[in-house]
From TrEMBL:
Keyword Glycoprotein: yes
Principal cellular location given in the protein's record: Golgi
InterPro entries: B4GAT1
GO biological process, one term: protein O-linked glycosylation via mannose
Membrane topology: Single-pass type II membrane protein
Name of the featured protein: Beta-1,4-glucuronyltransferase 1
Keywords for the protein's UniProt record, in alphabetical order: Glycoprotein, Glycosyltransferase, Golgi apparatus, Manganese, Membrane, Metal-binding, Signal-anchor, Transferase, Transmembrane, Transmembrane helix
Cellular compartments annotated: Golgi apparatus membrane
Catalytic activity: 3-O-[beta-D-Xyl-(1->4)-Rib-ol-P-Rib-ol-P-3-beta-D-GalNAc-(1->3)-beta-D-GlcNAc-(1->4)-(O-6-P-alpha-D-Man)]-Thr-[protein] + UDP-alpha-D-glucuronate = 3-O-[beta-D-GlcA-(1->3)-beta-D-Xyl-(1->4)-Rib-ol-P-Rib-ol-P-3-beta-D-GalNAc-(1->3)-beta-D-GlcNAc-(1->4)-(O-6-P-alpha-D-Man)]-Thr-[protein] + UDP + H(+)
GO molecular function: glucuronosyltransferase activity; metal ion binding
Amino acid sequence: MSVALYAAGDEEFEVLQLYLVYLRKCYESIRERVLFSLAVPKMRTPKKQPRGFELPDSIDCAKPEATLNEFMSRVPNEQTNWRIRNVYPQNHMRNLARKNCQTDYVFLTDVDIVPSFNLTVVLDEFLRNDNCDKCAYVIPTYELDTRVRFPPNKTELIRLARKGLARPFHQKVFIHNQFATNFTRWLGDASPNHVHHENVKTGKVYISHDVTNFEFLYEPFYVAKDIVPPHDERFMGYGYTRNTQVYEMYVTGYQFKVLSPVFTGHWGLQTRKTRPAWRERQNSANRKQFETFKKEVFARYMRDPLKMMKNAN
């Protein structure tokens, strides 16, 4: 796993180092399998770091969240206020993590997206027979009510969805984000008479269907060979960060294929009321950047399958 981290100033960098020491001390899987990359803002670089840190033997490995909160209490309010005023370099961080990933395939995901049980094992088995260079394998994403346990399989996920305790990611706040995945079709193999129902029971990965109604602003979480276009780093903060990269993939001729019965989850049923105003401000700024970006993509590939240049100046 490749994780990109962003730390501004000495206080945050000290917390970051302390917490990484904690994680590596407490969790063998993180110590053996996770590579961390660091980015710092030019205007707020650490001055007194790095330093060596030792944790007491009595540290509680069963409380990672509480431990992080304790460390974060050392960060002054001035630092927090600085962060609010500055946009997060999401696409730079995605590119940084990808450059330091040591595998032939990349699973594009965010840090708050939870994979379904045994995802790496069954995906590895599926990809061993993959010979498609320009295929992006979409892993459907659902929002989960925080009152439920993470579903152990697709059958349980569907049960939660029928009770209103799970739903497609961003369905209420921005439906175009995942709409092209076609969740209705993805749910079809839950029927006992479906030709691939046995896969749902065993967990074996297969291609449920192709994305046939690709639209701009589609933002799937996908697995693909590590040859896809990078994320454009002009897009900062929220809005137009992932979907522009997926759009460029589509222009270059990538096929998007939806996998089943694997999935990912995101905690919390989202509503527009929970979205802060600053997110829309960042989205508007990135929307202006897209006008230049789409012209560059057209010039680079001389293809315009979504007719994005129709209204270009």
